[in-house]
Amino acid sequence: MNSNKTYPGIRERTEAFFIDGILEIIVLIAIAKILQFFPTADESYRILLCLSFVGLYDPIATSFFGCTVGQYIKKMHVRQVHNENAKILFILAIVRFVLKISLGSISYFTIPRDKKNRAIHDYCAGSVVVFR
After folding, report:
1. Helix 43-60 to helix 90-103 angle, to the nearest 10 degrees?
2. What does the alpha-carbon distance between residue 84 and residue 70 come to, in Å, rounded to a whole number?
3. pTM to 2 decimals?
4. For residue 76, what are the domain limits?
5. What is the tens place of the pLDDT at every residue in 49-108?
6. Residues 131 and 67: beta-carbon distance below 8 Å
7. Is 53 a member of any domain?
8. Number of domains in the chain
9. Which of 2, 74, 118, 125 has the greatest count of CB atoms below 10 A from its CB?
10. Cβ atoms of residues 31 and 50 within 8 Å
């Protein structure tokens, strides 16, 4: 392992998070526009579709592609902490996302104190964010 390796800090990770937030808003607006063509669609299905996108975007992106769009733009990947070449499992990506959203900025408190800049949600999911 390269001891000079740097890991994304709070600034880069927050920027990626906000990029993803903007993307999610754009996609949700697009979904709403598309659903206008289906006026008989039940409201509960509309809500379920939107919540599914918001809840599954991050876990699917990080486990299948290794990063979200925001992380890709910021040149970062989410990897397994013990094998930085391997993507995290889907179930761990869900755990990571739920904790990240539940804890909010509290999750970032460990980043400055950790040599790999891991957040609380990274510890719980066995993940690390690396520059690609």
Report:
1. 110
2. 19
3. 0.91
4. 10-131
5. 999 999 999 999 999 999 999 999 999 999 999 999 999 999 999 999 999 999 999 999
6. no
7. yes
8. 1
9. 125
10. yes
Cα separation, 79 vs 83, whole angstroms: 7
The first and second tokens of residue 4, run together, are: 């000079």
Query: Which residue in this structure is represented by tokens 């609380």?
Result: 120
Tell me, rounded to whole angstroms, the distance of Cα 16 from its chain centroid. Answer: 9
The whole-angstrom separation of Cα 27 and Cα 21 is 10
| Predicted confidence (pLDDT) per residue in 14-40, tens digit | 999 999 999 999 999 999 999 999 999
Please, what is the end-to-end C-alpha distance for the chain in angstroms?
15
Query: Which residues partner with 23 through β-bridges?
Result: none
> Positive or negative CA dihedral for 32, 37, 38, 40?
positive
